[in-house]
Amino acid sequence: MKKYIIAIVSVLYIVTMPFVFTEISASYEKPFDILENPLPSFVLLSFVGVLLMLVWVLIVAMKKAQALEDEKNGVSPEESTNNFNVWVSQLMQKWTKAKSIDKEEEIVLDHNYDGIKELDNSLPPWWVYMFYITIIFAAVYLLRYHVFDGDTQEVEYNKAVAAAKADLDAYKKTAKDLIDVSTVTLLTDEKDLARGKAVYNLNCVACHAADGGGTIGPNLTDEYWILGGGIKNVFKTVSEGGRDGKGMVAWNKTLKPADIQKVSSYILSLQGTTPANPKKAEGEIWKEQ
């Protein structure tokens, strides 16, 4: 009774699982993305694993049944093994249609070169079937992309790149450590400016003075800028450094993008203040476009 129950459950599993997998896949935009959606792949792998297990059980059962039949008929295990080898040989013959060595005289061609003879073997059926599959695939491909105007590889690639770029832009807007010149915004929150001041006091005071009046570096409190003002230009200057051969070093190897944004916002908050010993203005007057 237990065997019948297992058999019934196995049949029901095999019959219903494709429908379950279809329903699960339909609920995901990218069902075969293992990292984002592991469930469909897990269901598919489990289904294949159960099928392989059932095939293995079936093979074992067939071997046991054959062994019992051989024992009943008085066939020795050695003879049974030979029968299995014969079965394998017959199977290989069906899939290759190759002539055995003792029958090669029937398919030897008339010409030879330096003692090397050529056999006129038939093409293996497995190879022929694969060739037929390629013909069917080519026909489907022709109809799909040249008759019904399906998306070409270039169009699909451009769509995928556009979607990836949109996802990346959306991610950059919320990912603090992926801020760049194109996504940086001016911060005005007191906590952000306090953090920016702390970064400034630790890294910038030596060249720009504590009040931003400038020493070796330029005055940060006036409206003159050497490499442009505004949050985007200041962020770029702090990240990539000043002019080639002179000026400030690039801080993108030392500071995180979030801290660069905060210190840049703090620097802009110094605009219009009055330092104790302001340095002479350098650069050009910059106004926000």
Blueprint of the fold:
Layout: H1 2-26, H2 38-73, H3 77-96, E1 108-113, E2 116-119, H4 125-147, H5 153-174, H6 190-203, H7 205-208, E3 224-225, H8 230-240, H9 257-269, E4 284-285
Antiparallel strand pairs: 1-2, 3-4
Helix pairs in contact: 1-2, 6-9, 8-9
What features would you highlight for this structure?
elongated, 289 residues, mainly alpha, 58% helix, Cytochrome Bc1 Complex, Chain D, domain 2, 9 helices, two-stranded antiparallel sheet, two-stranded antiparallel ribbon
Could you explain the architecture of this structure?
The chain is mainly alpha-helical. The mean pLDDT is 80. The radius of gyration is 38 Å and the shape is elongated. A hairpin with a 2-residue loop joins strand 1 and strand 2. Among the domains are: 95 residues; 96 residues, Cytochrome c-like domain (Cytochrome Bc1 Complex, Chain D, domain 2, Orthogonal Bundle), CATH 1.10.760.10. A two-stranded antiparallel ribbon has the order 1-2. Strands 3-4 form a two-stranded antiparallel sheet. 58% of the residues lie in helices and 5% in strands. 12% of the residues are buried. Helix 1 runs antiparallel to helix 2, helix 6 crosses helix 9 and helix 8 crosses helix 9.
In short:
This protein is mainly alpha-helical and 289 residues long.
Please identify the structural class as seen in this structure. Answer: mainly alpha
Gap from first CA to last CA:
84 Å
CATH structural architecture of the domain at 190-285: Orthogonal Bundle
CATH fold-level topology of the domain at 190-285? Cytochrome Bc1 Complex, Chain D, domain 2
Fraction of helical residues = 55-70%
Number of helices: 9
Low-confidence stretches: none
Would you identify the CATH H-level superfamily of the domain at 190-285? Cytochrome c-like domain
Strand order of the largest sheet: 1-2
Q: What would the principal axes of the Cα set say about the shape? A: elongated
Q: Strand share of the residues? A: under 5%
> Main β-sheet, in a few words?
2 strands, antiparallel
Query: Which class of the domain at 190-285 in CATH terms?
Result: Mainly Alpha
The count of β-strands is: 4
* Computed Rg: 38 Å
Q: Could you report the average pLDDT, rounded to the nearest whole number?
A: 80
N-to-C SSE series?
A: HHHEEHHHHEHHE
